[in-house]
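Hypothesis: this fold can be encoded by more than one sequence.
Test: take the structure tokens below, design a sequence, compare later.
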């Protein structure tokens, strides 16, 4: 990823991983777009692209299987820190997620993990409030029919690279 370093920090399970194999496709002051292969092999999920929307606290990912078939769009609610000197982002998963399936079905997941993390003292009240507000903003975009604006960032990169799936 050139000099840029991106870490994925999760609370459940607790981990902070350098995404050293992700390929940087695009970056400006508002978004970072990467291409990746799964860190931990899964039954269906094989690879995808992610767009970090820095101002909105959302990471939108396009998930593909081994054959390049779209599985879903997966949206993580995140916060981040940035160290300019080392050009390093640490994105913290704030647990609430939204999955959008190819047929348009929308599913909100992991709110139980958000509650569990608070009960266990793993997440602050302010982080919960941030997560819920950012989740609400994302759902508002989706329910207004504007999610295509977010998808377009990834789709444009796929088109430019000629590497869709």
């Amino acid at each position: 990823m050139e000099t840029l370093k991106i870490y994925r920090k999760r609370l459940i399970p607790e981990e902070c991983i350098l995404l050293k194999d992700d390929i940087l496709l695009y970056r400006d002051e508002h978004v970072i777009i990467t291409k990746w292969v799964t860190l931990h092999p899964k039954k269906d999920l094989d690879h995808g692209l992610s767009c970090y929307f820095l101002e909105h606290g959302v990471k939108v990912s396009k998930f593909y299987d081994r054959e390049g078939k779209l599985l879903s769009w997966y949206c993580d609610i995140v916060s981040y820190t940035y160290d300019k000197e080392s050009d390093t982002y640490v994105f913290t998963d704030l647990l609430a997620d939204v999955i959008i399936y190819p047929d348009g079905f929308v599913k909100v997941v992991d709110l139980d993990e958000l509650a569990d993390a608070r009960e266990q003292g793993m997440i602050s009240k302010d982080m919960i409030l941030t997560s819920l507000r950012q989740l609400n903003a994302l759902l508002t975009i989706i329910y207004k029919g504007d999610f295509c604006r977010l998808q377009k960032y990834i789709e444009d990169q796929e088109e430019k690279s000629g590497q869709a799936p």
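The chain has three helices and nine strands. The longest strand covers residues 70-83.
Hypothesis status: open.
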